[in-house]
Structure to design on (286 residues):
């Protein structure tokens, strides 16, 4: 049985074994009243910065807040958050579709979602309704992160126009060579998605940005501007994917690329261990 996971709401300056941390009000209630955890039970805390903390529930509660307390046993990088940061720039679709995109993308490892208003975006919410929608998007991201065993809650940023998004990407890409921008586009025939990925190993990149169009895709001039900003247009194959399918499909391909690289690394480590064992035992001698 997996250990219960909780996301920390407040972080001390130093996270180390022996520290005592408090759960948030909602998680304290869930731990004690729903999960019925007892003192000494093991839990996993996530600091939102790609670290997992294992610890045990303490007896009693915090005297000031009444929160459940956990004593930390170990701090280590979250196995669910390995590899480059994945950012999905999603052309704004209809509300229900975006909610599905957020949930599936969080499950598949995205670290940040940036809704983008494009020329063909059907949904154009009024300013006063955007705040309510953004809060709903963040709640969905948190629920999906908990369900998927993530080590962080991916951020869902405020809605922005495409031009501003491209300016932000171009400015960041200009100062680092360890960033890859992918633009899935049905008009691309020469470059398939695996090709730019194959030029890198996961450890070579700090971040991968994925730009997905809304229903109906991008206007031709939007593709031109995205390429000029540094995105590489790629094909996802001979089929046309819906906007709610395209982003998760790319994330799944990136996950497969990461897993393949991990497998190669483990195979190399195994071969090295076997070689060392043969040297130590003399089995390599004629």
């Amino acid at each position: 049985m997996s250990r219960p996971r909780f996301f920390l709401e407040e972080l001390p300056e130093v996270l180390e074994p022996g520290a005592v941390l408090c759960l948030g009000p909602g998680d304290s209630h869930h731990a004690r009243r729903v999960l019925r955890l007892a003192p000494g039970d093991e839990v996993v805390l996530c600091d939102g910065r790609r670290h997992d903390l294992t610890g045990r529930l303490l007896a009693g509660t915090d005297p000031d807040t009444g929160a459940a307390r956990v004593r930390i046993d170990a701090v280590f990088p979250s196995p669910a958050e390995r590899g480059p940061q994945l950012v999905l720039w999603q052309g704004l679709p209809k509300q229900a579709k975006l909610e599905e995109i957020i949930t599936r993308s969080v499950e598949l490892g995205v670290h940040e979602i940036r809704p983008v208003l494009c020329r063909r975006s059907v949904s154009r919410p009024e300013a006063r309704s955007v705040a309510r929608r953004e809060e709903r998007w963040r709640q969905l991201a948190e629920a999906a992160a908990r369900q998927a065993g993530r080590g962080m809650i991916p951020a869902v940023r405020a809605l922005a126009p495409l031009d501003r998004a491209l300016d932000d990407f171009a400015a960041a890409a200009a100062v680092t060579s360890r960033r890859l921008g992918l633009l899935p586009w049905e008009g691309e025939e020469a470059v398939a998605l695996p090709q730019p990925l194959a030029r890198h190993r996961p450890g070579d990149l700090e971040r991968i940005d994925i730009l997905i169009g809304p229903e109906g895709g991008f206007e031709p001039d939007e593709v031109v501007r995205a390429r000029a900003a540094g995105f590489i247009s790629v094909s996802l194959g001979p089929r046309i994917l819906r906007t709610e399918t395209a982003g998760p499909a790319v994330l799944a391909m990136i996950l497969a690329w990461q897993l393949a690289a991990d497998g190669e690394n483990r195979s190399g480590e195994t071969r090295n261990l076997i070689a060392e064992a043969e040297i130590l035992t003399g089995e390599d001698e004629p």
Q: What stands out?
A: The chain has two domains: 5-77, 81-265.
